[in-house]
Write a structure and sequence with these properties.
single chain, 158 residues, alpha+beta, 60s Ribosomal Protein L30, Chain: A, four-stranded mixed beta sheet
């Protein structure tokens, strides 16, 4: 029981910051020996006071459940929805530190419209770590892309 309480306490300090921790600092970089990708970075390190915001299964759906017909349009709407969700928590796209991108039939389609939407969603210097996973289908028929997001939103916005 003490181990569980210690783990919970540690998670609280790590994810929400401790009283002795400094303002949020997010380091995004590619260590020597790694590639220099256009749409993401290899390593993100988070220190300081922040709240962790997790967004699961964000997709290119409108508020009334409609979806655009193309991957590019769905990808663009997906990132608009992610931005809106982060803003509801006091964050923005600069706070995103990790993406998991699921694309239907990845080996059979041109994924570049989705990749371009990722590149367009983040300002220079704020690329998250990310991974792309090819899947055979998503829960809603017609969806071509879905994204899980992890963000570190500073407790004190500058």
């Amino acid at each position: 029981m003490r181990n569980v309480l210690a783990a919970v306490g540690l998670a609280t300090v790590l994810f929400h910051g401790g009283a002795a921790m400094a303002d949020l600092e997010v380091k995004r970089w590619n260590p020597p020996g790694f590639s220099q990708p256009a749409g993401y970075v290899q390593v993100v390190t988070i220190t300081g006071e922040h709240k962790q915001v997790l967004l699961g299964g964000k997709a290119g759906l409108t508020a009334d459940g409609k979806m655009p017909p193309t991957l590019g349009e769905q990808a663009k709407l997906t990132f608009e929805n992610i931005k809106r969700a982060l803003e509801a928590e006091g964050g923005d796209m600069k706070d995103v530190v990790e993406l998991q991108i699921f694309i239907v039939d990845l080996q059979k389609i041109d994924p570049n419209p989705a990749y371009q939407a990722v590149r367009d969603a983040f300002p220079p210097g704020f690329k998250p770590v990310s991974m792309v996973i090819g899947v055979s289908a998503l829960a809603i028929p017609g969806l071509m892309m879905e994204v899980n997001v992890r963000a570190a939103v500073p407790l004190k916005k500058k």
